[in-house]
Amino acid sequence: MRLAHPLQTAVRFPTLLLMIPTLALAEPFTVKVDNLDHGRFSNEQVYGGFGCHGDNVSPRIAWSHVPPGAKSLVVTINDPDAPTDGLGWTHWEVVNIPASQASLEKGASGNPALLPAGAIETLTDFGESKYGGPCPPQGTSHRYVVTVSALDVAHIDVKKASSSALVAYQMSGKVIARARYVAKYRRASD
């Protein structure tokens, strides 16, 4: 029996490694909301109206690892605990965000200079096309689901006055991935 020369073995080993298929482990699509106190909105982000006395400043929302094939993004903040017979309450919706963007900056709502080019703020359940912060009924705590949806189209056909139902309809069949973050807010009893 003849043994291979050590140099021949050394040359063969890297060749074998090249033949082994590599597994690409994609990082998960994630979203986070900055400046929350242990996952809870501060008064700065709370709505200024309906009996709430917040500053109504939209938070910074950042995402990472947008999936390949995404051409645009939609950011939505919805309160599934709102007393609306299970319909929830849309607090903010920004559509047609280029997939190359990584965030919406703090205070971007109502400030075109801070919104990504081409992005549109659509109608919320407050009846305005801008951010409306948390404002649950007195003495209750609600969840606020921040969702970033990656779409396979560059834009959806909506306007500033489009409802969240129309946005959802236009997104139907175009969503390739979603990332969610759940924040909370409790409104104290007066």
From TrEMBL:
Signal sequence annotation: 1-26
InterPro entries in the record: PEBP (IPR008914), PEBP-like_sf (IPR036610), YbhB_YbcL/LppC-like (IPR005247)
Pfam families, per the entry: PBP (PF01161)
Keywords, in A-Z order: Signal
PANTHER family assigned: PEBP (PHOSPHATIDYLETHANOLAMINE-BINDING PROTEIN) FAMILY PROTEIN, UNCHARACTERIZED PROTEIN YBCL-RELATED
Record-given protein name: PBP family phospholipid-binding protein
Native source species: Paraburkholderia rhizosphaerae
